[in-house]
Amino acid sequence: MRFQFKHERPSASVAARRFRTATYLQKSHLYRAQFLAFSRVEFMMSEKVTPENKTVGRAGRLRTLLENILTSAVSVLVVFVVLEAGMRIWLAYLAPERAFLKYASLRQLEKRYKFTYRKWTPHRYLGYYPTPNYVKGPNKHNSLGYRGDEIDMPKPAGRTRIVCLGGSTTYTTELDDYRLSYPYLLEQELKRRGYKNVDVVNSGAGAWTSLESLVNFELRVLELDPDIIIVYHGVNDILGRFVWPHEAYTSDNSGAAAPVLMFMPSILEYSSLLRYVMIRTGMVKPHSSIDRYLAKPAPTFRFFDFYNQRARGTYPQGIFKDVSAEEMLAANTPKYFERNLGNLVVMAKYHGVKTVLATFAYSPYFPDKPTSSSPEFRSAYSEMNESLKSVARRTGAYLFDFAAEFPTDKHLYTDGVHVNAHGSRLKARLFADYLIESGLLARAEEN
Length: 447
Fold this sequence. Notes:
Layout: H1 12-49, H2 51-94, H3 97-103, H4 106-113, E1 120-123, E2 127-130, E3 135-136, E4 139-140, E5 160-166, H5 168-171, H6 182-192, E6 198-204, H7 210-219, E7 228-232, H8 235-239, E8 257-259, H9 272-280, H10 290-293, E9 295-297, H11 303-312, H12 325-331, H13 335-350, E10 354-358, H14 370-373, H15 375-395, E11 398-400, H16 402-405, H17 421-437, H18 440-446
Parallel strand pairs: 5-6, 5-7, 7-10, 10-11
Antiparallel strand pairs: 1-2, 3-4, 8-9
Helix pairs in contact: 2-9, 6-17, 7-13, 13-15
């Protein structure tokens, strides 16, 4: 007997009941999910607004910030230490000598050169003078502190001695070999022309003005028993006139230069890396610079401001908005320049020494060098040369108009003021011509 199961369709009432049950369950799940989601959001919102949670959140962010700052600081420190070590190694073992002299610290300089790196030595009355027995490559000073070979002392009988007075243009700073300086070449030129019993002494020093040459003649040069002195000054005496207020412009040049009582670099300069950057960017000068250990600009000295502004094309700024460089030079006349030269000539004459005053030559064809190309300096050179001619007329000194004889060709200069090797040779020949043609040398030999 077979059983058959018949599929019976539910009645309408049963189907309706099942549908309502399914719908209810679906809605229940939906409401439950919505409730849980709402509860989670509400919980999270309640967590955020709680004061304690605010504190915890801020503390976490602050901790993260501090961790980032610390990480960055450590990274910077590591990089700095590596660069500092590299700079010290470069200075100690790899840097060329010129770079070492420029960027080394005072302690590093003294350790390597035992103070012989100092081209200039402090002097009680001159401020400084060429270091005796200084030797650096092809350059040297003799035991008396003059650039060049030893000088026969006392002066041998029948010897004609010529001493050249001046600043860096006499010392011939731009040429490292003392045998290329114009006083040395002048002696060689005179001997080549038959004046065998003559010697020429280089008594120039960087940044010296006519005031230093006056003192130098009185205290040092007279000891050499000279027959003739050649005085060549100009640019440094113009620098000394860049002083303001006008009351600071005095005969002792204290408005332009101040003494260095003690060399004390800033704490940053103890780092080789920072010192390199500061020197490279012009923030400070090298430890081997005269301005660092022998002299420094006075607060009233305005030349460096003028030079930098002219070189950068930003003139006038600062003090020069109130008083122009032209007005400054007009107020600070070359009266002390004239006084120093006049006193020098009179003193030399008293001691039986002939004086040659030479006008100052320059080349205006260096547009990036305000000391030779700026209208203020070009006008000042003309004024100084006229003052020098006036002194020669009043005192009876010999006048060599060197500026009229020496070409303005830029190929003879390094910067429009200092000569190169070609310029130095021509300078020596022109002075030799003048000494012979004026009869000065013959008269000296007769004496």
